[in-house]
């Protein structure tokens, strides 16, 4: 059985899944703020499932629409955005090494700050590329359809 949805519906579902993946931390962080000690791994699994699953649904929507990134629009920003996101995710490496391998008690906030800084900066750069691409598409279609001789 194959689900038949439009690209905008796949993108909508992907965005919702990403949002749910990010919001999956809300109960965990609330419990931590209240001094309770909840297990970490179920929330990490929910977060990764939501974020990676949503990313995949958005990629499916882009493939269905035949959207390919224009090479002339922000190649350095796209590369830098990937680098920031990878570094933001890799910020957890030293934390897990300290806590799981060495067995040390380590404060999580510096690693969380590095993760969020990298990932959010990468997402912002990627959004700037997408906004510029859509802006150029909109302005070129507006200019091309005008019957005014100035254009």
Task: Explain this structure.
This protein is mostly helical and 151 residues long. The protein has 6 helices and no strands. Helix 1 packs antiparallel against helix 3 (41-65) and helix 4 (75-90) packs antiparallel against helix 6 (109-145). The longest helix has 37 residues, at 109-145. The chain is globular. The termini are far apart.
List the helices and strands and how they pair.
Blueprint (H helix, E strand, L loop, with lengths): L6 H17 L1 H9 L7 H25 L9 H16 L1 H10 L7 H37 L6
Low-confidence stretches: 146-151
Name the assembly state: single chain
The number of distinct helices, counting runs of at least 4 residues, comes to 6
Topology pattern, helix = H, strand = E: HHHHHH
Q: Based on DSSP secondary structure assignment, what is the total number of beta strands?
A: 0
Cα-to-Cα separation, first versus last residue: 50 Å
Strand content: under 5%
Residues in helices, as a percent range: over 70%
Query: From the alpha-carbon coordinates, what is the Rg to the nearest angstrom?
Result: 20 Å
How is the main sheet built?
A: none
Structural class of the helices, strands and pairings? mainly alpha
Give the overall shape, derived from the CA principal axes. Answer: globular
Arithmetic mean pLDDT = 86
